[in-house]
User: What shape does this take?
Amino acid sequence: MNVADRKLAVVTGASSGIGFELAKVFAAEGFDLIVAAEDEELSSACGELSQIGRGVDSGRERSTRSPRLPAASARATALAPTPPLAPAASTP
Assistant: This one.
């Protein structure tokens, strides 16, 4: 598959709730996923998401303060120039 034809979604708060449900929709539609969450449930969520769709890359981190997010954003942009971003994580 050509990189330009590849579908990629970035979803924060993907371990549960709305974020997890959004990630499932993207996975079912054939998107590769970059998912992030700050809790331990992310690992099991990634396992389920991997069974639904394509590739899943994850990071357990505070989404608003993580120094890894700029790197994830750059990676997402390299993989798909304009990926959908679904920020479902709440911040204080």
